[in-house]
Amino acid sequence: MELTQHMLTSHVVSVHDDEATVTFHLQALHYHSALGEGPEVNTWTLYGRGTFRLRRTSGRWKICSTRLIGLHSTGNVNMVADLTRRAPA
Questions:
Q1: H-type helices in the chain, by residue range?
Q2: pLDDT tens by residue, 30-53
Q3: Which of the listed residues 61, 66, 79, 83 has the most CB atoms within 10 Å of its CB?
């Protein structure tokens, strides 16, 4: 991708002993000019929600799993496949 911007918002953190869960909302913008002009072909934005699970080990929190659920998207939902086809062999 030529440009990406991933924003995580509305974090909710739950801690139980050495385990924690963080839920959040996501907006992930992807752009590549090689696909042409106009956001319908050169931009893909994914909206969703996600979860990080963390574990405290030796006093440090580490992410042990992630999950993302896509709820809506706009633009070129085939952007990754389109760029893969254009890549030199």
A1: 39-42, 79-86
A2: 999 999 999 899 999 999 999 999
A3: 79
What the block records as the tokens of 53 is 């699970």
Element (H, E) at 49: strand 43-57
DSSP secondary structure letter of residue 32: -
Beta-carbon contacts of 23 under 8 Å, excluding residues fewer than 6 positions away, are: 11, 12, 49, 50, 51
Q: Name the nearest CA neighbour of 43 among 5, 70, 8.
A: 5
Domains and CATH numbers, the chain: 3-84 (3.10.450.50)
What gap in Å lies between CA 37 and CA 50, rounded to an integer? 31
Q: Identify the band that residue 15 occupies on the pLDDT scale cut at 50, 70 and 90.
A: very high
